[in-house]
Amino acid sequence: MNSSVDVLVFDLGGVLVDWNGIDPLVRLSQGKLNPEQARRFWMETPWIAELDTGACTPEAFSAAMAEHLGLDIDATEMTAQLDSWLRGAFPGAAEMLARLGARHRLAVLSNNNALHWDKIEREFDLLHRFDRLFASHLIGLRKPDDEVYRHVQQELDVPPHRIAFFDDNIECVDAARRAGWQAFHTKGLDQVQAALRANGWLDAV
User: Fold this and answer.
1) What are phi and psi of 87, to 5 degrees?
2) Where are the domains of the chain?
3) Which CATH superfamily is domain 7-18+88-198 in?
4) Closest CA to 134 of 153, 152, 113, 160
5) Is the pTM of this model over 0.85?
6) pLDDT digits over 12-61, tens only?
């Protein structure tokens, strides 16, 4: 194991998993949101926090989301849209995790919800490759709140500087760095692998 890290912690959507809630949301909003506004919608809207921490169902969230954004779509169709935006693991993600898992402890830290988590469990060959799973809707904590990083560090029982974290949202990366983690802003598997190789945590093939 590389001496500079004990645990590699990964976000899922946009890092290991093909989830794009930005471009479809821009289209659905019919010009109400630009891409950055759509990204921030997922980070900052109060209903997102409710969904991410398991305080509301995906169906209730879908109804509130459609109403909040003034979308001409009912809750059932909105839920189906949300489900369709989660497409699958990035090609090569499972193989990369298998290689990493031979030398490192691996964990997930993901803002997630019952709808998407169930689909990931059923259809994606990923979750069994991790030693620990920290899904926001199951632990009641979400990124980038400081408390979630303290919780994960305590559960992993390692010093903060020996955790390496990979996330596609800069707010979550910044919060992890404030917690003392080694944190990397990565979008897509290529950037994740580049960061891992640059630090000696993933051998070149």
Assistant:
1) -100, -30
2) 7-18+88-198, 21-84
3) HAD superfamily/HAD-like (3.40.50.1000)
4) 152
5) yes
6) 999 999 998 899 999 988 888 999 999 998 888 888 999 999 999 999 99
